């Protein structure tokens, strides 16, 4: 269905603060993970046929961060493994079968700006506000590679499929937007850098591993640039760009199995245009005259069947994603369903630390209420202190009079 929705259309509105990130589950079409300024991560299960009324109750609520949560990321090959990054500089790995964090990555010294898994989920790349690019082994928390980006301030990072390379977008020392290509096993120097323009909006990278295409879209821009990624120099080959007069605030991407293969559609964006209050679909189509299935632009691609269980992945097993063909169109054969665990205890202990101990206020209203309660407590203590000061002076005067009385002399 397309067209303008009504102002009172049902929404998912269970968070108590601004929602900062959402991600669809790659294996279950109707499950979403979201994170918010209220320090929580929530899992939502959208009913078949869409929402009929506002959804305020999440299927699962996850509390473990002490400050607002800015990023969530699903594992690419394992069901029910979710990563979250908060403004407490920590990354939590959640096992949704238990509803608890099973690992805490505490190697960042500032806010984490972006996270990206490699194709089999064995490595995690992070871009941090401390101007460092890191490649981590998420299960052990070990930092395998680290780059100090003095000339290239990294904002976004993405793994380029199984090519063992990373692409980052950021800002140069002259405040021009640029992209850089890195070898994941040696982050001492980028393989190549390319300046884009002098605008100020963030550059969002989107990589299609099937066609080796890189799409760059800037926040506040109206265009989307296309590049082809090669295995040899110059590595990045600029092709062309899509132009539009309407600036984009954000972009979403349709999974491969949702594309129209009969029209040779290889990528589809959903462009958020706040000035017009709409979401516009943008299709990337390869012009072909033949009506037959194009094997070269639609190779085997990751499907909706997980390759591992959470216990297998946490025990150290790595496995490539299960590939499917799009020749016969998308057929949902996956039997994966989401079952929220039943939890009673409220303590969350990871690495010997209780993450829910002394949790700060989660929303601005809670912060104000706590502030006013503390102000009342301070006033009460000041009054009590002044009363005791008066009482002390009275006792001192009585003691002095007692000492100076003739009877004592």
Automatic annotation (TrEMBL):
GO terms for molecular function: actin filament binding. PROSITE patterns: WD_REPEATS_1, WD_REPEATS_2, WD_REPEATS_REGION. It comes from the Eukaryota. WD repeats lie at residues 12-54, 62-104, 105-146. Gene3D superfamilies: YVTN repeat-like/Quinoprotein amine dehydrogenase (2.130.10.10). Residues 378-405 form a coiled coil. Keywords: Coiled coil, Repeat, WD repeat. Pfam families: WD40, WD40_4. Belongs to the WD repeat coronin family. This is Coronin.
């Amino acid at each position: 269905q397309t067209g303008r929705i009504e102002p009172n259309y049902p929404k998912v509105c269970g968070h108590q603060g601004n929602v900062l990130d959402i991600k669809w589950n790659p294996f279950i079409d109707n499950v979403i993970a979201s994170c918010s300024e209220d320090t929580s991560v929530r899992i939502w299960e959208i009913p078949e046929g869409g929402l009929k009324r506002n959804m305020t109750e999440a299927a699962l609520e996850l509390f473990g961060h002490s400050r607002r949560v800015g990023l969530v990321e699903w594992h690419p090959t394992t069901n029910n493994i979710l990563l979250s990054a908060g403004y407490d500089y920590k990354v939590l790995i959640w096992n949704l079968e238990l509803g608890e964090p099973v690992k805490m990555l505490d190697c960042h010294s500032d806010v984490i700006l972006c996270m990206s898994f490699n194709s089999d989920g064995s490595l995690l790349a992070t871009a941090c506000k401390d101007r460092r690019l890191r490649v981590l082994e998420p299960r052990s928390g070990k930092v395998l590679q680290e780059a100090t980006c003095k000339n290239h301030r990294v904002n976004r990072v993405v793994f380029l499929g199984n090519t063992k390379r990373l692409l980052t977008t950021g800002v140069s020392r002259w405040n021009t937007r640029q992209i850089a290509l890195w070898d994941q096993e040696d982050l001492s120097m980028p393989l190549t850098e390319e300046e884009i323009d002098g605008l100020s909006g963030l550059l969002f990278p989107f990589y299609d591993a099937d066609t080796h295409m890189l799409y760059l879209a800037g926040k506040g821009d109206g265009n989307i640039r296309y590049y082809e990624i090669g295995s040899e120099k110059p590595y990045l080959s600029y092709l062309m760009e899509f132009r539009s007069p309407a600036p984009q605030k954000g972009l979403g991407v349709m999974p491969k199995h949702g594309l129209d293969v009969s029209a040779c559609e290889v990528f589809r964006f959903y462009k958020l245009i706040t000035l017009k209050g709409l979401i516009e679909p943008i299709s990337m189509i390869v012009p072909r005259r033949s009506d037959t299935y194009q094997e070269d632009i639609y190779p085997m691609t990751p499907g909706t069947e997980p390759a591992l269980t959470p216990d297998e992945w946490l025990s150290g097993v790595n496995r490539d994603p299960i590939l499917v063909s799009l020749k016969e169109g998308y057929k949902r054969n996956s039997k994966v369903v989401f079952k929220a665990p039943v939890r009673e205890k409220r303590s969350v202990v990871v690495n010997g630390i209780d993450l829910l101990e002394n949790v700060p206020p989660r929303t601005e209203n809670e912060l104000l209420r706590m502030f006013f309660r503390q102000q009342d407590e301070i006033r009460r203590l000041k009054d009590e202190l002044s009363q005791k000061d008066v009482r002390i002076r009275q006792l001192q005067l009585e003691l002095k009079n007692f000492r100076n009385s003739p009877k004592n002399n």
